[in-house]
Design brief:
- This protein has one domain.
- It is built from five helices and four strands.
- It is α+β, with helices and mostly antiparallel strands.
- Strands 1-2-4-3 form a four-stranded mixed β-sheet, with helices on both faces.
């Protein structure tokens, strides 16, 4: 039963899991993953490039990531589980855009002010 549940969860998050597998393949081919760990049952891939991203069951973090970064990214895995195929539209794309432009359009706002990030912090129990 546990295996069936895992398969169903994976399918529910399939769009972001497919993108994650493509990204992971790229990082492996480019030899960009120095470490793989787990956090609450989710694989965490440490990569040489900057920034962190979560896609479905996959967390990618930079070498400079802190424990709070991992907790935050874990929060995104929870969002993905809740929203399934809608995750990329409701969380993924807005989150990436916010990361790219928040310092320009809202320099007085912290990164985690934005709804996608505030919710991820809450779900990941970031203090």
């Amino acid at each position: 039963m546990k295996r069936i549940k895992s398969v169903l969860k994976y399918i529910w998050q399939l769009p972001q899991n497919i993108i994650a597998l493509i990204y992971l393949s790229y990082l492996i081919v480019e030899n960009q993953i120095p470490a793989i760990t787990k956090y609450k049952g989710i694989k965490v891939y440490t990569k040489y490039s900057s920034g962190s991203v979560t896609l479905g069951n996959y967390i990618f973090i930079s070498l400079r990531a802190t424990e709070n970064t991992i907790k935050h990214e874990y929060g995104h895995t929870r969002q993905s589980l809740y929203l399934g195929p809608l995750y990329l539209i409701i969380i993924g794309i807005p989150s990436i855009l916010w990361a790219m432009i928040h310092k320009t359009i809202a320099p007085d706002k912290l990164y985690n002010w934005f709804y996608t990030e505030a919710w991820a912090d809450k779900l990941g129990n970031v203090k």
